[in-house]
Amino acid sequence: MLKDSLKTKLLDLYAQGDHKKIGELIKTSLGQLREKTLSSLESLLPEIDGKFRLKLLEILMTDGESDLIPLFIEAIRAEKNMLYAKSQILLFREFQHQEALPALLSLENEIDVDLKSTFQRTLGRLLSRFSEQFYMSEFRSGYGNPRRVKFAADMMLRSPHPDYIPFLNEQILLNDPGFRGEGLRALRELGDSSSIQPMFSLLSKMRSQRDKGVMLGGLVKGEYKGGMRMFEALVKHAGVSWSKEQETQFLENLERGEVSDLLEQVLDGYHLFEDVRRKIRPYLRDILLDRDPGAFEEARTKQALDTYLGALRALMHDNVSSMGSISQREEDDLFIRRIEQYLPLGDPDRDALLISGLSGFHSDESMNLLVEYVNTCEEPELLSLSMDALAHFPATEIPKGVEKYCDQENDAILRRKAMNLLGQWGLGENLIAKSISSSSIAVRVDAIQTAARFKLKNCYSDIKKLLKPNLPDSVLHAALEALRMFDSDQTGRAVRPFINPPHAQKIRLAALETAYKAGGAEGIDAVLKLFQQDNGNKLADLVDPLMMLILAGNITENQDIYLKYKDLFLALFERETNPATRGRILQMFENMEILEEYHIRTLISGLQKLMATFKGQSESEEEYRLRKLAERLENVTKDRNVRTQRDQLLQTLLDNVQKQQGFPKVQALRKLGQNYRSDLVIGNPVGLQRLIQVVSDCLDEGEQTEIRLQAIGVAGKIRHPRLHQQLQKLSATMTGSALNAVRNALNNPVDPVFIKPIHSIFVMDDSRYITKQLSKVLAADGFKVDFENDTAAGLERLGDGAFDLLVLDYIMPDMDGIAFLEEARRREVAPERTLIITSTRNQDELRLFVQVGIDGLILKPFRMEDFLQRIKDLSSPSLKSV
Amino acid sequence: MNDTEENRRNFERFHSEMSICWIRPAGGDGDFLLAEITNISAGGMLFQLDYPMESGQDLEVRFELPQNDELVEARAVVRHCKKEENEVYYLGVQFTDVKNYTIPVLMAYLEALYK
Predict the structure, then answer these.
(1) What is the CATH code of the structural domain delimited by A755-875?
(2) Which of A9, A451, A634, A794 would be a feasible disulfide site paired with A764, CB 3.0-4.6 Å?
(3) How many CB atoms lie within 10 A of CB A245?
(4) Chain A residues contacting B, CB < 8 Å?
(5) Would you tell me which CATH number, out of the four given (2.40.30.170, 3.30.300.20, 1.25.10.10, 3.30.70.920), belongs to the domain A412-518?
(6) In which domain, by residue range, is B67 found?
(7) How many CB atoms lie within 10 A of CB A489?
């Protein structure tokens, strides 16, 4: 009843145009019978026109409650008119409820392409408004989905918020490894003193889980004959207490073989992670039922429990180490005492957890305690943990324990960790150097690799001295690779002998790579010389690795060296039997930008000789590539000649116009018009600027009528946007035949060659807020943007990159916009198009902008949308006037 | 973290063309400067910009509002101007007149937009 009457009333009021009453009616109706009103509006919205629909939604937004969100989403989804849909999306951003965000996201895949940008802006607004709730809800929804939880934690770390701390304090207590791991990772950075107590609780929980897990592991590994004995043991360790009646009931169930419920209740006492529980359940069920679970289930159960215990230990480590970091941030000097007191002496992980705590709490006391562990402890696992922890501390002297393990033959893990610490601290280069000459091959290799990783300069000559042919291959290989890390002009000479046989190929490859990479341009030259002298005898198997090195590097940077050896590469191509290697040689040439006439000529002749060897066969892909390469090189020469001729022609034509006066000038202009073709200025921006300037000067009011008439014809032929603008201005002041000439000239549309899409924009303004805002708006619309606030730096920056458009402020303290533009043009760094932004309304100044030749003017203050539109107009064929 | 920094951080997150406005001294034909809106409070706004202004200076203010095709025109007076590091000036202004709106309505609108 209400449905129909509300609909009818709304339609009547709309027909009467009484918007005020519509608003009042909806408000009253929502207040009295909200649900029915919403349902009535839900059926009304699709039946009415877009304008009324938008009006109703605007009225509803004044209510703005979250139960309206589905109504809005449905309206946006069903809206056929793009303009109304856009307005509806913009309206949607006013919702102040976090449910708005997932609701809007549900439209993401079905939104029309024309609405994308509005949609994204609204989404961005909601994301920023509700980001905290959104990330917390993502975290919470990631139960059992570690990637989702990690994403949410990453986002929290990226933009921290105080609300995250109490939230994470709770989440880590939930029994999920993902929540705990990611929660602890985030709390390490974000947590405060309020996190310490929950972290202690978590540690207690995990210690208890660990103890029970160990016992469960013991039960699984032990031999339990009979389900009853297993049941008793399981119950005992679970720590659950049942009444006598319950126990009797359970035993009866067990006898009847009904074990599922029973097992679940017992397992509850172990607080296992969900996936561990799932994995061990079948095994335990079989044991309780006196069935043989089989070897597979047994192995799976044992493995699941081992992994579980490993994960718990890692989480306990993260827990204590994060507590250390937080306590340090909160300047809680008593942290170490508290953790020592908290951990019972008998806890099997006591020392390991103390070390974890010390690793997070960076103080002199922590450092001293860790050094004590390293110096006195014999247990490899704790030593390893202490060394890991020490890596977080700076050191001024080497702990004895670290020194001791540096040349320890028998324990590779501790040895590498000890050497790493020395490298990281920048201490004990002499110890590493000593280990380089150790009698143990493994120690020597580790020392060489450490010296290389930390670029220990004093070890360079020790490693270089090692390069003797009788050195074991593993040491020689490590040494050859290590030398690559040092910047020295001696490396190339030292390693090059090892490129040749009879060394093993692994050694030769390492030597080649080091010789190629370590010596800069000279190193590359020397390597190529080796191949040249070899003449295909000994180094044939290294041609492919050489080409791979070349292709992996910067070809243009080293192009001159490669071209010096182009005959070598052509000879290698001819000799090479592997098509892949030949392909790489061709690829190197294809990736070069060769401009020197000498190289072009000689390379073409080399390529022609190669092509001659293919004669008589149908064209292969290789021959096709050779032919295309030769053609490309020939075209460079041809283009260059044609370009030079065209530039000279344009220059002569413009010189003539400029130096003549009176009738000869008219003739020179006519000749310019007769000879002008757009290819005279394509690729010649300086010539184009000059052409426009010359013709523009001839159109000037001060010129004789004959000259202006001729210039109008020429401008009409050139069809450049700037000349078109000038002609449009002239049309306002001209009469008679001159006006007809202008109209004729304007009949021809702007030449499309002058309308290039704009991709990159440079913004020059002395105000940081303008450059920041304009760059943000432009970048959001997909333009590549750069900006500068200082004019001198701006001119420099223009020279660094090719920009399609300059957005330029007029009033700047050091140099005004016009002076800046003129200087940029003088230096030949000005982008082809310029938009000036200014607050001035002074007619003389505005005329000055036109005279200097710009492509548009934007008056401050402006709407950002209008600014973007102006830039888009410059890219479109229907060019708008200034 | 002081209040100003806290507000600035909130505004960093909000990436809309609406978080800026144009201002210039009233009555002249000086250059319009772009200012970032840092905070909104009853009757006034806190701006950030890179030029100083005198206390008591009358300003012309222009800003965008959603679904308005034209910039909203307003007048305001500078209540205080404080220099921070890197030539950043914090400008507290109070609105004195707004075209087509009453000041309380405009402030409610702006607060709803920015907070």
Answers:
(1) 3.40.50.2300
(2) A794
(3) 8
(4) 87, 90, 93-94, 121, 124-125, 128-129, 131, 159, 767-770, 773, 776-777, 780, 811, 838-842, 860-865
(5) 1.25.10.10
(6) 3-114
(7) 11
User: How much is the pLDDT for A65?
Assistant: 92
Interchain CB distance below 8 Å, A125 and B14:
yes
Spatial separation of the C-alpha atoms in residues A153 and A134, rounded to whole Å: 12
Section A165-178 average pLDDT: 92
What's A756's DSSP letter?
P
Instruction: Supply the ipTM of this predicted assembly.
Output: 0.82
Across the interface, of B16, B32, B48, the residue whose CB is closest to A860 is: B32
A2-140: CATH class: mainly alpha
**Would an 8 Å CB–CB cutoff place B48 in contact with chain A?**
yes
Quote the Cα angle for A36-A38-A39, to 5°.
65
pLDDT at A864: 87
How high does pLDDT run on average in chain A? 87
3-state secondary structure A204-260: HHHHHHHHHHHHHHHHHHCCCCCHHHHHHHHHHHHCCCCCHHHHHHHHHHHHHCCCH
Residue A618 neighbours by CB distance under 10 Å? 6
Q: Give tens-digit pLDDT for B2-24.
A: 444 444 333 333 334 457 889 99
Reported as a single tens digit per residue, the pLDDT across A117-168 is 888 888 878 877 787 887 888 888 877 778 888 888 988 888 788 889 999 9
Q: Which pair of tokens denotes residue A82?
A: 């793009």
Nearest CA in chain A to B110: A94
Size of interface A-B (CB pairs under 8 A): 64
Number of domains in chain B: 1
Domain boundaries, given as residue ranges, for chain A: 2-140, 412-518, 755-875
Residue B74 belongs to a domain with what CATH number? 2.40.10.220
